[in-house]
Amino acid sequence: KLFFTDYGNAAKVERCDMDGMNRTWIVDSKIEQPTALALDLINKYVYWLDIYLESLEVVDYQGRRRQTITKGRQIRHLCGLAVFENYLYTVNSDNLSILRIHRYNGTDVQALARLDNAKEIRVFQKRTQAAVRSHACELDPSGMPGGCSHICLLSSSHKARTCRCRTGFILGSDGRSCK
């Protein structure tokens, strides 16, 4: 799945399949300007910052069990968001510090370090890296991913795929080759 935020005409947090199909709103009320998003891949939670409402919130992958982690003016200066164990990590753009926020007790906030021009933060952890298994976009005998001549996108499961073409090309009637 792909998770993303939008604060155009109607602010929301959404999810869809990797090929853009099955687009679903998971948060569409009491949200104004969601600017950063992080996933807890193990427990299946979505965290986001809303800089207009000055809140840090969480829901499960279906948009249920919504909770506010913390609220306050300090939120408007936060950018980037990452999850690692019991903490959320973010960057304070006002003083360029890395902050650690306890995700079950939002009042436990610590500044860890200062970085020049940091705008995003990522945590890489072996446990959250999916084990490689056979999938629909594996290279076929002629070296094409999923049999697609240009781009292969996983669909609703690891066994389904959609072929797409680079800009300037159109997908042929076979659904795999680009012309």
TrEMBL record:
<dbReference type="Pfam" id="PF00058">
    <property type="entry name" value="Ldl_recept_b"/>
</dbReference>
<dbReference type="InterPro" id="IPR011042">
    <property type="entry name" value="6-blade_b-propeller_TolB-like"/>
</dbReference>
<dbReference type="GO" id="GO:0042813">
    <property type="term" value="F:Wnt receptor activity"/>
</dbReference>
<protein>
    <submittedName>
        <fullName>LRP1B protein</fullName>
    </submittedName>
</protein>
<dbReference type="InterPro" id="IPR050778">
    <property type="entry name" value="Cueball_EGF_LRP_Nidogen"/>
</dbReference>
<feature type="repeat" description="LDL-receptor class B">
    <location>
        <begin position="1"/>
        <end position="43"/>
    </location>
</feature>
<dbReference type="Pfam" id="PF14670">
    <property type="entry name" value="FXa_inhibition"/>
</dbReference>
<dbReference type="InterPro" id="IPR000033">
    <property type="entry name" value="LDLR_classB_rpt"/>
</dbReference>
<dbReference type="GO" id="GO:0017147">
    <property type="term" value="F:Wnt-protein binding"/>
</dbReference>
<dbReference type="GO" id="GO:0005886">
    <property type="term" value="C:plasma membrane"/>
</dbReference>
<dbReference type="GO" id="GO:0060070">
    <property type="term" value="P:canonical Wnt signaling pathway"/>
</dbReference>
